[in-house]
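Following up on my earlier message about iron/sulfur cluster. Here are the inputs again, as you asked, copied directly from the submission form:
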Amino acid sequence: MAELLNINQATRSSKSAQKDPLPITVHLAAGLEKIGLAMKSRTWRREGQAGLGPLQRQVLTLLRGKPDHSAQVSAIAQELVVRLPTASEAVATLERKRLVKRHRSHRDGRIVTVELTARGARACAPTVGMPNQLAAATGALTSTEQVAFLKGLMKVIRTLQEQGEISVARMCASCRYFRPYQHDDAAQPHHCDYVNAPFGEQALRLECAEYEPASVSQAKESWERFNNGRKVAS
Ligand code: SF4
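Thanks, got it. Here's what our run produced:
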């Protein structure tokens, strides 16, 4: 009897899976949207007391990723794909909280550089807030799933960048120092010219302070090689 029940249940679930008219891409998009919503609501709930909203947090994180922890307001607006007044407002709020400092250029008063303060760096440290929750959640994946997820995210981000939805992604795939599949070692097939060392798939970066953009032709060639998993001909 129990066996019959199991068979019936299996048949029902396989039928419902077959009847599902939605392609997997829709399910994946829904999943990503859920994560985005969770991040936003949690950020609001948890950090609302400290008054740090999502955009403010993104500004701090962007500055933290810069080698000198500073950027012009116009660059911040461009990288976060928001209007200049919106970025200026977020920066002004962060300055009131002493999380950033603004410097106006002596030569051109229209140019304003924003610098992360020590307090700001502490407020957006990777161990604070939602990214840490996300890191813990992705810890539930096996190492193989983590690598597949990382590579999948890289592809999604690159596509969004091509569509103009993300302006700058400081990731290996478009970095001038990236040499995909340079080595025979399956555990460490890639090479980073910045540190002049091989590295494995699990160390691919989606946000790297040492990133420098590759030329259009180098980025295209690197991507094709990375995407096809092709080793460089020796
Ligand atoms: S510098 Fe950073 S982004 Fe560039 S290849 Fe090395 S690790 Fe990747």
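One observation from looking it over: Residues 15 and 230 are 39 Å apart (CA to CA). Hope that helps, and feel free to reply on this thread.
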